[in-house]
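Backbone-to-sequence.
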């Protein structure tokens, strides 16, 4: 058995060596000649798994250690008898952390309290559901829009997109990229969408660059039709629209899901999927040695402070979006390097807060967010 592994897959070394001839290759260097005799491929998003790469190969299984699978030609794989899997939800909590940091950073900059705001969440899958839970913990009014789920589950907890356009102060998008059909999301945020906003909301895109019509969003910000926009995912990555980047309130290099936890989860799900497919007997494999930041414990003193300030300090102590924004705006030509050399980031449950003078209700919220409290 031969397995080709993108060498950007973390925490995978040694997992398959007892069972297979493993070759680690940079994703961008993967060619049809390299995969010709491979039985399986484990990749991230930079390896395009299509007919050109796969035709004539022995590949039977592809695992991508990412939520997205736009880089896999699923129609070709299905016709060719090649099974494939992604890692749904692997970095959902990482994106939730990113959104939490974005919300607090923006609200502090604009001097408003999140609990006074209504957020519209478009796409309520693994990521959107976590964002909704966090926003409810923060006391925000939450509107959910997810037409596929609404058709399956009924309309009780969902609203139409028009309701979000009318009522939301913040709109965050967590949808897959569907180019056409009933649930098309390509340029979902376009000129028509923006002209039908009742308020001037903050827009956040941490799902797919093509969900935003870049020109329309830029023009809306210029015209004051939106109060701001935050973008992590870009059309034509790594070639960025520099005018859009400079106009953004926060622009980051597609790293919302780049916590070490998210990457480790993606690796785990890929190895376990290959194990099940080839009957390797390591269906419960777990990665080891997941990096930790230098500091996983910090003190917060809530004396004479509002709850909002305490929650903001806790969240921003684990991840500060302004650092990634500064780095990208300083060196947009280093987009790929900023992703590839991304520093250690861990999610809320890796951190312990030494709490002083913090009210019980606030402590309960910190625990619900995932923090350990001592």
């Amino acid at each position: 058995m031969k397995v080709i592994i993108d060498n950007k897959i973390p925490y995978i070394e040694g997992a398959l060596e007892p069972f297979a001839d493993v070759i680690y290759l940079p994703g961008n260097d993967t060619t049809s000649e390299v995969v010709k005799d491979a039985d399986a491929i484990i990749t991230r998003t930079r390896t395009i798994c299509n007919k050109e790469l796969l035709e004539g190969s022995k590949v039977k299984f592809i695992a991508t250690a990412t939520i997205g699978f736009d880089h896999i030609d699923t129609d070709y794989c299905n016709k060719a008898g090649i099974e494939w899997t992604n890692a749904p939800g692997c970095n959902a909590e990482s994106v939730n952390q990113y959104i939490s940091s974005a919300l607090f950073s923006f609200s502090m900059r604009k001097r408003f309290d999140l609990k006074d705001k209504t957020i519209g969440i478009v796409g309520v899958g693994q990521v959107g559901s976590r964002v909704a839970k966090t926003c409810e913990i923060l006391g925000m009014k939450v509107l959910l829009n997810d037409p596929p789920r609404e058709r399956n589950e009924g309309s009780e907890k969902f609203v139409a997109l028009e309701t979000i356009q009318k009522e939301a102060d913040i709109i965050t998008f967590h949808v897959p990229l569907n180019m056409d059909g009933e649930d098309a999301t390509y340029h979902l945020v376009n000129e028509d969408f923006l002209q039908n906003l009742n308020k001037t909301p903050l827009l956040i895109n941490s799902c797919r660059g093509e969900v935003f019509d870049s020109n329309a969003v830029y023009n809306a910000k210029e015209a004051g039709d939106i109060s701001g926009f935050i973008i992590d995912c870009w059309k034509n990555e790594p070639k960025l629209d520099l005018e859009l980047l400079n106009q953004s309130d926060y622009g980051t290099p597609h790293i919302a899901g780049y916590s070490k936890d998210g990457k480790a989860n993606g690796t785990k799900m890929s190895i376990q999927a290959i194990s099940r497919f080839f009957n390797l007997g390591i269906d419960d494999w777990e990665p080891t040695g997941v990096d930790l930041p230098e500091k996983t414990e910090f003190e917060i003193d809530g004396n004479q402070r509002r709850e909002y300030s305490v929650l903001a300090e806790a969240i921003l102590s684990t991840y500060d979006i302004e650092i990634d924004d500064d780095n990208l705006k300083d060196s947009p030509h280093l987009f790929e390097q900023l992703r590839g050399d991304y520093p250690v980031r861990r999610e809320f449950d890796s951190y312990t807060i030494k709490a002083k003078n913090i009210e019980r209700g606030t402590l309960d919220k910190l625990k619900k967010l995932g923090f350990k409290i001592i």
